[in-house]
Design brief:
Length: about 725
């Protein structure tokens, strides 16, 4: 492997080793760095000042170390930040969506980090600011708004915020006439609520101490939260839960699910003290979603072997499974993603042959039509409507070269009205760029889709650097959408590539099944195969590829680093889920029981233990000459806890051969999503891109001097 530019000589943090042993199914593991997990992690997520001083010292030493190693990129980071900020319309706003006498939207002010929510008269007029995110965030190192929902009578606003990064959201209620907050305040919620029909109370989900949505409650305005009525309690820690309403405000829906099973309970919105009724009992592997359709519900389900889903209907007053009737049959290879119901139409978003499609169905005669698009690869999103009795629905379109466009579409006349095209203030001409869709042969003969973006003048002779992004878990498909940040790399000669590996639903539900649990290894070998294909097609060379992924995609980065370290010039792992085995063995962690259907349960199953042990990045670190690795994390992250990358980095440094550095940057004021402001988030991206540019530079590195970093936690 061609050596990357030198980093300055500096001593990395070297945490103490305190071996901890665990034995399962006859296998014993040793973890020298388990002490980096705070014993009081539940309390620390709510109040980061409670972090153990020895752990804090180590994390701060890691930040000091990476600062030294990246010091020569400081000016580049500023330049990248300026470029990316210049592509954002600072005072941008959404196209307001009509609801009764008003139209509601959100906007940013010049220099603003947080959105503002506004409304105006339905057919135009002066804006009324309902909530100013910048004002609410003032003086707080971290602030993120949750769901913002106006009441049906348009007199109140239910909104949520998180000011720790731990995703424990506080709910507030604002009087829209006076602009003042009502005394109602509820802590430790999942980030949103749903009004009842009378708009004098709301339903919400309460998180327990382990950050699990365990209870749905109803809060009557003006009452003490201690008196909130328990509507439903989920006792199985393996299930997520949320509560929502329908656009007509007739129904309250409690959704309960893990990664392969779902269940709904229904109640009328005008009966907040009624017992919710079960729709279809949870059955392992049975998934279904409900969408209101007047006197019926549309039911999107995989029942009866419909692997790529079908659409059923059932009477709204009795939608039990025995009353389900087929409306849109299952078609293998056509994955139905979502359904939106209107008075006279039904719209579905589906994916076929790797590309999204929007299909409109006339409920009066059953006729269907497809909304067509011209580009080779693109992304679609359904925005729907606040209103049910309407002929107009909204959708968004973009591609890797085409900025996002917002359309209103008349489902009866089929007229498409362009409302807005994403503005790039610094300029963007699609003719200067090329986007392509490749198919990379995997080891077992499957073809892995690859979305590519590069400048038209980039030489395709193998000399170009490449950022190769991957995820491949939870059935999440990575869209070939427009992202202004990518052009800071592409304009510098990078090829930007997305590997649509197994574990996502990019080629249907089977693509997901073939990348989970016992088939998880396909996710990793697919990504390596994509890297090999890009080299074979002379888009790049192995030592010019910077692999990037976050969260479960960070696990992908850790796995391919172990399996094929010489296939990549560098690795960027953001909030990486790298200590898979330890986390899946700990049922007390926030997401562990709900994750067992995705990864397996190594506590109960020796086979699941064996499968996870074969790829868990932390457990498979070896004496490899790893490429330079950059790990990023957030202190209060409840999804991928900070100690996973902290431990992984320590073990990599201990066991690896070669001189390539391992860097770890941790945001001490944020969680899973990183910095909360739109511009502060760009600073993090600029840092990551400067690392990618540094390690792929052909220039001789400048001598940056020597530095010593104190041993962390020693």
């Amino acid at each position: 492997m061609t050596k990357t530019p030198a980093f300055p000589t500096a001593r990395p943090p070297s945490p103490e080793k305190h071996p901890v042993f665990d034995t399962h199914h006859g296998f014993t593991r040793t973890d020298d760095y388990a002490w980096l997990r705070a014993d009081n992690w539940q309390a620390m997520f709510r109040d980061p000042s409670l972090l153990d001083s020895r752990i804090r010292a180590h994390l701060e030493a890691e930040n000091a170390y990476q600062t030294v190693l990246m010091a020569d990129t400081a000016e580049l980071q500023k330049q990248l930040f300026g470029e990316m900020k210049g592509r954002i319309k600072e005072d941008d706003s959404t196209v307001p969506m009509k609801d009764g006498p008003y139209a509601y939207g959100s906007s940013f002010k010049l220099g603003g980090e947080q959105p503002r929510y506004f409304r105006m008269p339905r057919d135009g007029g002066d804006e009324q600011i309902l909530l100013d995110g910048d004002a609410e965030a003032e003086g707080k190192p971290y602030f993120r708004l949750g769901r913002v929902d106006h009441s049906a009578d348009h007199r109140k606003l239910l909104w949520a915020f998180d000011d720790k990064g731990s995703e424990f959201f506080t709910l507030r209620v604002r009087d829209l006439t006076s602009g003042k907050e009502l005394p109602d305040q509820i802590d430790a919620t999942s980030g949103g609520g749903t009004w009842n029909a009378a708009d004098d109370g709301f339903f919400y989900t309460r998180l327990d101490d382990n950050h699990r949505p365990s209870k749905v409650l109803f809060h009557a305005l003006g009452d003490s939260p201690q008196n909130d009525r328990l509507i439903y309690e989920e006792t199985d820690p393996g299930f997520f839960m949320d509560v929502g309403g329908t656009r007509s405000n007739k129904w309250i829906m409690i959704g309960i699910n893990d990664h392969e099973t779902s269940e709904y309970r229904l109640m009328r919105a005008d009966e907040p003290f009624a017992e919710p009724k079960l729709v279809a009992v949870r059955e392992i592997g049975l998934q279904y979603d409900l969408e209101e359709g007047g006197d019926i519900f549309f039911i999107l389900t995989n029942a009866d072997g419909a692997k790529d889903f079908k659409i059923m209907t059932a009477p709204a007053d009795d939608p039990v499974r025995a009353n389900w009737e087929e409306l849109v049959a299952h078609e293998p290879g056509r994955l139905i993603l979502s359904v939106v119901g209107f008075k006279d139409h039904m719209v579905r978003l589906e994916r076929k042959e790797g590309l999204p499609r929007i299909v409109v169905r006339d409920r009066r005669n059953g006729e269907e039509h497809l909304i067509s698009f011209d580009e080779e690869a693109f992304s679609l999103g359904l925005s729907g409507s606040y209103e049910y009795d309407t002929e107009i629905m909204r959708f968004t379109y973009s591609s890797m070269t085409t900025p996002a466009q917002v359309f209103d579409y008349n489902m009866r006349s089929r007229e498409r009205v362009l409302l807005k095209t994403q503005e790039v203030p610094s300029g963007h001409d699609p003719v200067h760029y090329v986007t392509r869709r490749l198919m990379a042969p995997a080891a077992d003969g499957e073809l892995v889709p690859v979305s590519l973006l590069h400048h038209r003048d980039t030489p395709l002779d193998g000399s170009a650097p490449c950022l190769l992004y991957g995820y491949g878990s939870y059935g999440i498909a990575i869209p070939a959408a427009f992202n202004t940040n990518w052009f800071s790399l592409v304009d510098r000669g990078f090829v930007f590539a997305i590997a649509h590996v197994r574990g996502g639903k990019d080629k249907g539900y089977g693509w997901y099944d073939d990348g989970k649990r016992s088939h998880k290894m396909n996710t990793f070998t697919d990504f390596i195969a994509v890297a090999q294909h890009l080299v074979a097609e002379r888009y790049t060379q192995h030592d010019r590829i910077v692999a990037q992924g976050g969260s479960a995609g960070g696990m992908l980065m850790g796995a391919v680093a172990n399996m094929a370290p010489h296939s990549f010039g560098a690795i960027v792992a953001e909030v990486p889920f790298v200590d898979v085995m330890t986390t899946m063995l700990d049922a007390s962690l926030p997401l562990t029981p709900p994750e067992w259907p995705e990864w397996g349960n190594p506590i109960a199953s020796a086979e699941d233990y064996r499968i996870i042990a074969a790829y868990s990045p932390y457990d498979n670190v070896a004496d490899h000459d790893y490429p330079p690795i950059l790990a990023l994390a957030g202190l209060t992250d409840p999804r991928v806890t900070y100690w996973e990358p902290a431990k992984w980095v320590a073990r990599l440094r201990e066991r690896k051969s070669g001189t390539n550095p391992v860097l770890f940057k941790i945001n001490m004021d944020s969680g899973h999503a990183g910095a909360s402001g739109r511009f502060s988030r760009l600073e993090e991206i600029a840092y990551t891109y400067s690392f990618a540019l540094k390690v792929t530079s052909k220039l001789e590195p400048e001598v940056m001097g020597k530095a010593e970093i104190a041993k962390g936690a020693s």
